[in-house]
Amino acid sequence: MSDTTKLVAEKRSDFGKGAARKIRRAGNIPAVMYGHGTDPVHISLPGHDTMMALKQANALLTIVIDGDEQLALAKDVQRDPIKPVIDHVDLVVVRRGEKVTVDVAVHLEGDAAPETIVTLDHTSLQLEVEATNIPETLVVSVEGLEAGTQIHAGAVELPQGATLVTDAEALVVNVTAAISEAAAEAELAEAEAEAGIVREEEGEAEGTEAPTAEAPEASEEA
Hints:
By secondary structure, the protein is mostly beta strands. Helices cover about 15% and strands about 40% of the residues.
């Protein structure tokens, strides 16, 4: 991933919640950029373009401030818990050729053997990789894999120049035999028995009402 998204930013001197709300009302996103021993730079980013750029994980950005360009990665993205908007972005300055540590999503490809279940134990792996060559995903093929097959982090193919930070023995993919309906039912019954749960026999769930005695006829005597 060598392409970058260019975002034209404006420096800001007003801080605090009130200033941040004002920036967001104007359709922009408050942000701070830091790294490489430089003082933090507080900026305002274009809202729509930034949201589109950050849809891609580990997006490499070119931040333009007063005509000067600076490469940066989003270190922390704070999103509104209700609205589909970004509240604030922390950006870390990077250099071309510099290596950074990032989490990269694992994407499964293909179909395992029939009557198997594929479990993805690690949805992402941590890599040390050049800032200008961060992969969007790590593709792992499960095509035709039989039950009992396991793929560990060390066996996942990495892009050239990348180094695995996650423990190489970490389980990424586990292929197991699918449980039959009868086996699943037996397993459930065993678990219920251990928990002291007694199932009602079929037909007992809908209990019949006990007969009620008829009320005696009212006496005609005054």
